[in-house]
Amino acid sequence: MSSASPASSPRLRGASLALACSLVVGAALVGLAPLPAQAQLLADPRVDWQTADTQHFRVHYRSTQRAQADAVARAAERVYGRITQALDWQPRGKTEVVLYAELDIANGFTTPLPYNKIGVFLSPPDQGELLDNSAWLDLLLVHEFTHAVHLDKVRSVPGVLQTIFGRVPWFMPNLFQPGWATEGIATYLESDPASGRGRLKGPLFEAWLRAERDNGFLSLREINADGRALPLSKQYLYGAYFYEFLARRYGADKPAALIHQYSGNIVPRLHSNPSGATGKMMDALWDEFLADLGQQVDSRAAPLKATPEVLGPRLLGPTFAAPSVAALPGGGLLAVLDDGVGATQLVRLNADGTRQNLVEVNGDARISVAADGRVLVAQHDVCNTLYLAYDLYRLHGDRLQQLTSCAHLRRAVDVGPSIVALQLDGGRSRLVRLAEKGAEPAVLYTPEDGADLIDLAASADGQRLSLIQRSAGDWRVLELDLAQPGTAPRVLLRRNAPLYGLRQASQGLEVIAADAGVHNVWRLAGGEFKRLTHSHTSVVAHGGTAADGSLATVVVAPQGYALHRLPGATALQSMPADTSGAAMPAAAAAQDKAVVMGEGVAYSALRSLAPRSWFPAIVADRGLTAYGASTSGADALGWHQYLVTAMVETSQKEVVGALEYVFAD
């Protein structure tokens, strides 16, 4: 999936006082995935917000999204005991939780400044490493609450200084750990490999490890430096496997022991920090970890690599990203390609090997090609200032025509003369048919609570629509008969591992499925589920089998992604398709009944606006000296931010200082 910025620059800049030793409490953000540059971590002030409390959390939500707030509250309280016990620490005060429906991406963030706050992006994942057997809110909350507990934990001298000065970042030792240590412990604790929950030992993390093994694992110096090199999720990847190694080799209590030791550092001490728990310095421990990791990867990969890859010749790569590919009816391919340097391009790859850059697109554009050659592009863009929403575009030659605005349509296909799409609404997904411009889309299907729609595909005649629907670890391919609206969908396939990348190909439905810990392309036809590819890493996108029998795939490769084309896709493995239609598992666990969220009240910034820290401020400039203090604060929704510095000038005995206030960014 990606990586996150370990720190974000404060929006509120410090007062311009000469030689002033003052403090601005900014937001050090750690999160589940990379935040796009366009994303504003500001809740929309134009809608009605409410606040409600649970035992350990204060939840802020739109008044129209009480049901989502209840689900978040249950997920948060569900993880509280496990994470606080694992890290031997309970956060001070209630953790503020803000629900964001402004962004159509699966993400979240945590900041300990000026108080513990978790941002929950309600949109569930529909591709990538976050597709696992966890319910989305469970995965998000366990990861982000681990950050909250980890960064809040303090002891020894820093704890004493916090007692005096409050939540000053300099006295929060775990803020100064490298990103792999912070993200690693959260990814490690989110995971249960035996049940397919979390990213540790998940298909994409294992794929990247096999690619990294071929390319050479990152040294401690390289992982500390981070950088933009692939995999983007390297902090999560190496960090999670390091903590797994530590627990397996030195004892289950050792990950928490390292964090406990670091929580008392007044000066960051990464190198010597593990010596008390393991008897080794970090560089020696990292070398031991990489040697063990190589053995583990080789052992798990041996059965997979005993069979040669079946992907066909490589057309291009490695490249920085290739999120979507589709076969064209007349031959050739369309692909979204990002070389990591220039703008992301929608590219036509012709059958004769030539390449044509058609138009610039945004980074996560998804393409769909109808049987008659019409091309739809779904891509996110900023709308109404604060929203990052997916909208639809029609490709005409080398230009894009925008079809919708702020419509939150993540995936779409042409069905006859109309367009059918998956729409997000406060994190919930539904199937809609687009109406005339300006009219509300017609809702065709809404899954039950706790279930998400991942992808869709339409038959060539436009009579049937296929969907991927999941609820935690229950994954299904469903079929809707569009000629009989209102009829219940039919189950075509049921699995207990991720499914995505649904395509209506020339010989049947094709999908990327995880089997034996590896993502490959599978075909569903005639009641059989047949594997078409054999990758030594992971297939992450495919174009569906074309009329000539060829199959284009994008796979994880050393230093990036590679695009392959298999000349003739035939079945390598076959099994009966499970079509059982038993009810989806209940979204809420039995213990959730004990979770009570209070009545919602109108949001008040005053509940979180009080300053949480102070620090001395001193000015000495050409004979003028002044002494005082600086403090700052912000409310939970980010609407109000302020910085106050008040001092007394010694020669004239005058009060001087500065006040800065920012409203809604």
Task: Please explain how this structure is put together.
The structure is a single chain. It contains 10 helices and 36 strands. Helix content is 20%, strand content 34%. A 7-stranded mixed β-sheet has the order 1-5-6-4-3-2-32. The chain has a 5-stranded antiparallel β-sheet with strand order 24-25-26-27-31. Strands 7-30-29-28 form a 4-stranded antiparallel β-sheet. α2 packs across α4 (179-190) and α5 (203-215) packs across α10. It is an alpha+beta fold and 665 residues long.
Key features of this structure:
665 residues, alpha+beta, 34% strand, disordered N terminus
The helix-and-strand class reads alpha+beta
* Strand ordering within the main sheet: 1-5-6-4-3-2-32
Q: Kindly estimate the percentage of residues that lie in beta strands according to DSSP.
A: 25-35%
Helix content: 10-25%
As residue ranges, the low-confidence spans are 1-27, 34-40
